[in-house]
Amino acid sequence: MLEDLRAACRRDPALYGPRAVEAVLYPGLWAVWVHRLSHRLHRRGVPFAPRLVSQLARALTGVEIHPGARIGRRLFIDHGAGVVIGETAVIGDDVTLYHRVTLGGRGFRSDGKGAARHPVLGDRVTVGVGASVLGRVHVGDDAVIGAHALVLGDVPAGARVSAPPSVVAAPADGVAVPAARPAPLP
Known about the structure:
With 186 residues, this protein is an alpha/beta fold. Helix 2 (27-43) runs antiparallel to helix 3. A 5-stranded parallel beta sheet has the order 1-4-7-10-13. A 5-stranded parallel beta sheet has the order 3-6-9-12-14. It has a 4-stranded parallel beta sheet with strand order 2-5-8-11. The longest helix has 17 residues, at 27-43. It has one domain: UDP N-Acetylglucosamine Acyltransferase, domain 1 (3 Solenoid). It is built from 3 helices and 14 strands.
Protein backbone atom coordinates (compact mmCIF):
# COMPACT_ATOMS: atom_id res chain seq x y z
CA MET A 1 0.00 0.00 0.00
CA LEU A 2 2.87 2.36 0.76
CA GLU A 3 4.34 1.70 -2.69
CA ASP A 4 1.00 2.67 -4.24
CA LEU A 5 0.89 5.89 -2.21
CA ARG A 6 4.45 6.78 -3.19
CA ALA A 7 3.66 6.08 -6.85
CA ALA A 8 0.66 8.43 -6.70
CA CYS A 9 2.77 11.18 -5.13
CA ARG A 10 5.50 10.75 -7.76
CA ARG A 11 3.17 10.72 -10.77
CA ASP A 12 0.54 13.30 -9.83
CA PRO A 13 1.80 16.90 -9.96
CA ALA A 14 -1.12 17.97 -7.73
CA LEU A 15 0.35 16.02 -4.82
CA TYR A 16 3.24 17.95 -3.28
CA GLY A 17 4.29 19.13 0.15
CA PRO A 18 1.54 18.91 2.76
CA ARG A 19 -1.02 18.07 0.03
CA ALA A 20 0.60 14.65 -0.47
CA VAL A 21 -1.60 13.25 2.30
CA GLU A 22 -4.60 13.77 -0.03
CA ALA A 23 -3.46 10.70 -1.96
CA VAL A 24 -5.32 8.51 0.53
CA LEU A 25 -8.54 10.03 -0.83
CA TYR A 26 -7.86 8.99 -4.43
CA PRO A 27 -10.51 6.55 -5.70
CA GLY A 28 -7.99 4.85 -7.98
CA LEU A 29 -5.86 3.87 -5.00
CA TRP A 30 -8.82 2.46 -3.11
CA ALA A 31 -9.93 0.55 -6.21
CA VAL A 32 -6.48 -1.07 -6.53
CA TRP A 33 -6.33 -1.91 -2.82
CA VAL A 34 -9.77 -3.52 -2.84
CA HIS A 35 -8.87 -5.35 -6.06
CA ARG A 36 -5.93 -6.98 -4.33
CA LEU A 37 -8.37 -8.47 -1.80
CA SER A 38 -10.94 -9.58 -4.41
CA HIS A 39 -8.17 -11.06 -6.59
CA ARG A 40 -6.92 -13.20 -3.67
CA LEU A 41 -10.43 -14.50 -3.11
CA HIS A 42 -10.83 -15.15 -6.85
CA ARG A 43 -7.56 -17.11 -7.03
CA ARG A 44 -8.65 -19.26 -4.08
CA GLY A 45 -11.86 -20.16 -5.91
CA VAL A 46 -14.20 -18.50 -3.43
CA PRO A 47 -17.60 -18.19 -5.12
CA PHE A 48 -19.57 -14.94 -5.34
CA ALA A 49 -17.55 -12.93 -2.78
CA PRO A 50 -14.84 -11.66 -5.18
CA ARG A 51 -17.42 -10.16 -7.55
CA LEU A 52 -19.43 -8.75 -4.65
CA VAL A 53 -16.32 -7.04 -3.27
CA SER A 54 -15.36 -5.70 -6.72
CA GLN A 55 -18.88 -4.36 -7.35
CA LEU A 56 -18.95 -2.61 -3.97
CA ALA A 57 -15.59 -1.02 -4.83
CA ARG A 58 -17.00 0.03 -8.21
CA ALA A 59 -19.98 1.70 -6.53
CA LEU A 60 -17.69 3.59 -4.16
CA THR A 61 -14.86 4.52 -6.54
CA GLY A 62 -16.24 4.54 -10.08
CA VAL A 63 -13.47 2.12 -11.10
CA GLU A 64 -14.39 -1.37 -12.25
CA ILE A 65 -11.66 -3.99 -11.95
CA HIS A 66 -12.65 -7.61 -12.45
CA PRO A 67 -11.29 -9.85 -9.68
CA GLY A 68 -9.56 -12.02 -12.30
CA ALA A 69 -7.42 -9.19 -13.67
CA ARG A 70 -3.72 -9.50 -12.82
CA ILE A 71 -2.21 -6.20 -11.73
CA GLY A 72 1.46 -5.52 -11.09
CA ARG A 73 3.00 -3.23 -8.54
CA ARG A 74 2.48 0.53 -8.25
CA LEU A 75 -0.48 0.88 -10.63
CA PHE A 76 -1.65 4.50 -10.52
CA ILE A 77 -5.16 5.29 -11.72
CA ASP A 78 -5.40 9.08 -11.93
CA HIS A 79 -8.90 10.44 -11.23
CA GLY A 80 -10.33 6.96 -11.70
CA ALA A 81 -13.82 7.76 -12.95
CA GLY A 82 -15.01 5.34 -15.58
CA VAL A 83 -11.96 3.07 -15.70
CA VAL A 84 -12.79 -0.53 -16.69
CA ILE A 85 -10.29 -3.40 -16.46
CA GLY A 86 -11.49 -6.76 -17.78
CA GLU A 87 -11.20 -10.24 -16.33
CA THR A 88 -8.19 -11.51 -18.27
CA ALA A 89 -6.29 -8.21 -18.42
CA VAL A 90 -2.66 -8.27 -17.30
CA ILE A 91 -1.03 -5.04 -16.16
CA GLY A 92 2.70 -4.73 -15.53
CA ASP A 93 4.54 -2.67 -12.92
CA ASP A 94 4.52 1.14 -12.72
CA VAL A 95 1.60 1.58 -15.13
CA THR A 96 -0.45 4.80 -15.20
CA LEU A 97 -4.08 4.86 -16.35
CA TYR A 98 -6.11 8.05 -16.64
CA HIS A 99 -9.88 8.35 -16.31
CA ARG A 100 -12.31 6.67 -18.71
CA VAL A 101 -9.73 4.10 -19.86
CA THR A 102 -11.11 0.74 -20.99
CA LEU A 103 -9.00 -2.41 -21.06
CA GLY A 104 -11.69 -4.62 -22.49
CA GLY A 105 -12.69 -7.45 -24.77
CA ARG A 106 -14.08 -7.16 -28.28
CA GLY A 107 -17.49 -8.62 -27.54
CA PHE A 108 -19.23 -11.95 -27.27
CA ARG A 109 -19.14 -12.53 -31.04
CA SER A 110 -15.34 -12.56 -31.14
CA ASP A 111 -14.33 -13.54 -27.59
CA GLY A 112 -14.60 -17.19 -26.60
CA LYS A 113 -15.84 -18.10 -23.13
CA GLY A 114 -12.88 -18.57 -20.77
CA ALA A 115 -10.40 -17.32 -23.39
CA ALA A 116 -7.75 -14.69 -22.67
CA ARG A 117 -9.57 -11.78 -24.28
CA HIS A 118 -8.30 -8.60 -22.62
CA PRO A 119 -5.10 -6.55 -23.10
CA VAL A 120 -1.66 -7.22 -21.68
CA LEU A 121 0.22 -4.04 -20.69
CA GLY A 122 3.96 -4.12 -20.10
CA ASP A 123 5.87 -2.19 -17.46
CA ARG A 124 5.80 1.63 -17.29
CA VAL A 125 2.95 1.96 -19.82
CA THR A 126 0.82 5.11 -19.78
CA VAL A 127 -2.74 5.05 -21.12
CA GLY A 128 -4.31 8.49 -21.64
CA VAL A 129 -7.77 9.84 -20.95
CA GLY A 130 -10.59 7.99 -22.69
CA ALA A 131 -8.36 5.50 -24.50
CA SER A 132 -9.68 2.02 -25.25
CA VAL A 133 -7.42 -1.00 -25.64
CA LEU A 134 -9.58 -3.89 -26.82
CA GLY A 135 -8.89 -7.57 -27.32
CA ARG A 136 -5.82 -9.66 -26.49
CA VAL A 137 -3.54 -6.78 -27.47
CA HIS A 138 0.04 -6.72 -26.18
CA VAL A 139 1.38 -3.26 -25.29
CA GLY A 140 5.16 -3.25 -24.85
CA ASP A 141 7.15 -1.72 -22.00
CA ASP A 142 7.37 2.09 -21.89
CA ALA A 143 4.66 2.58 -24.53
CA VAL A 144 2.35 5.60 -24.35
CA ILE A 145 -1.25 5.39 -25.52
CA GLY A 146 -2.57 8.90 -26.07
CA ALA A 147 -5.93 10.34 -25.10
CA HIS A 148 -8.97 8.89 -26.90
CA ALA A 149 -6.90 6.39 -28.89
CA LEU A 150 -8.55 3.15 -29.97
CA VAL A 151 -5.99 0.32 -29.90
CA LEU A 152 -6.95 -2.94 -31.61
CA GLY A 153 -3.48 -4.31 -32.40
CA ASP A 154 -0.17 -4.88 -30.66
CA VAL A 155 1.97 -1.88 -29.71
CA PRO A 156 5.75 -2.30 -29.65
CA ALA A 157 7.85 -1.31 -26.65
CA GLY A 158 8.52 2.44 -26.44
CA ALA A 159 5.94 3.31 -29.11
CA ARG A 160 3.54 6.25 -28.92
CA VAL A 161 -0.03 5.83 -30.12
CA SER A 162 -2.20 8.88 -30.69
CA ALA A 163 -5.71 9.58 -31.87
CA PRO A 164 -6.15 12.03 -34.73
CA PRO A 165 -6.58 15.61 -33.51
CA SER A 166 -9.92 17.33 -33.88
CA VAL A 167 -10.53 19.35 -37.03
CA VAL A 168 -12.60 22.52 -37.00
CA ALA A 169 -14.75 22.51 -40.14
CA ALA A 170 -16.02 25.65 -41.80
CA PRO A 171 -19.74 26.31 -41.28
CA ALA A 172 -22.21 25.64 -44.10
CA ASP A 173 -22.11 29.29 -45.25
CA GLY A 174 -18.43 28.83 -46.15
CA VAL A 175 -17.09 31.48 -43.76
CA ALA A 176 -14.53 29.91 -41.46
CA VAL A 177 -14.72 30.87 -37.82
CA PRO A 178 -11.61 30.38 -35.72
CA ALA A 179 -11.92 28.22 -32.62
CA ALA A 180 -12.63 30.33 -29.56
CA ARG A 181 -9.77 30.82 -27.16
CA PRO A 182 -10.40 31.22 -23.47
CA ALA A 183 -9.61 34.59 -21.98
CA PRO A 184 -6.29 34.71 -20.10
CA LEU A 185 -6.50 34.43 -16.35
CA PRO A 186 -5.84 37.64 -14.41
